[in-house]
Structure formats: C-alpha cells, structure tokens
Fold this sequence. Notes:
The protein is of the alpha/beta class. It has helices at about 1-15, 80-90, 165-180, 185-190; strands spanning about 25, 45-50, 60, 70-75, 95-100, 105-120, 125-140, 145-155.
Amino acid sequence: MKPLSxxxxxxxxxxxxxxxxxxQTINIQPQxxxxxxxxxGDGRTLALTVxxxxxxxxxxxxxxxxxxxxxxxxAADIRPAIRDxxxxxxxxxxFRVVDSGxxxxxxxxxxxxxxxxxxxxxPVVKSVETAATIRVQARVDNREYSGRYRGTRTTxxxxxxxxxxxxxxxxxxxARVLERLxxxxxxxDFLRGA
Length: 194
C-alpha cells in the first residue's frame, strides 16, 4: 500500500506543479499596417525621438496558481524597435525621418508611458487584456502639439498563452496604439506646418 500512496502523492504534486506558469520575456517588434493611409508629409524632415518612461519592464503576471512568480516583462531596450517601425511608417506618410537633434522641419518625441498585460481567471487563465499608452510632443518652429493615445484589447484563451502567443498579443497592442498616433490627421497637419 505504501508504494501506491507514494505514487498518488507524486501524481498530486505533478498536477499542482502543472498549474504554475513560468516567467516570460517578450521582444517588442510592432508591425503597423497603414496600407490605406494617404501620404501627407510632403517630404518634410522630421527629427524622431522615442523614450521609454515606464517605471518597470514588468508588464504584469501570466496568472495561474502562482501568479506572483509568473511575471511577463519586456526584453532589453524597446525604443529602437518602436522608433524603427515609426520611421518606416512615417516614411510611407511622406515624411523624411532624421536622427533626433538633427536639423529638421519638425521634431516628434514619442513617449512610451505603459505597456500592460493582465490575465484573468484562476487557477486557469481564461482571458488576457493587453494595453499600451503613449504620448507625443511635437514642435514646429515655436509651436507645440501634444497628444495621448491608448489601445486596449481583450482576448479569450482556452489555455495559458505561451511566449509566442503573448508576444503576438502584446505587439498587437503596441502596434494598435502606434497606428492611432500615425492616423491622427491633426498631428500630421501640425507636422506639415499647416
């Protein structure tokens, strides 16, 4: 009877450990789709800066039984990937992006305020909410413009998302908020000097 008890104890321990979720590190690589956007930049030069003012690289926790130990965070410096994607899209909009501090017709500073991840359901994750918030500060001559953009999305899941699924959801949230910024015609007009 003792071997059976030991086996049962092992099986219970194994099933409980299966509910624990490991920490994950996400690479930020947003892909914005502006295929239908109208080029309005008229070749004006734009000095682009991206800053990360988040208080922490931790986005949230993956949930599960041991949520406190299942943090999800961003890898390394997120600024280059966001800047590269913005530069690519601003080029499509007719602006010519130059380095920060370079002589330009306009300056655009994009500030990442937050990227968030919230898993719901315990002990089994049933949905994930991702969100991102950014601000912009633009300058043309002695005029200034500021704006704030936020995007949120809730995704129902059947199992706890793996690192690739989480990366896709988080990058979609970042891309969505960048798209809102890029589609802001008031900002585009300001950068054109209109």
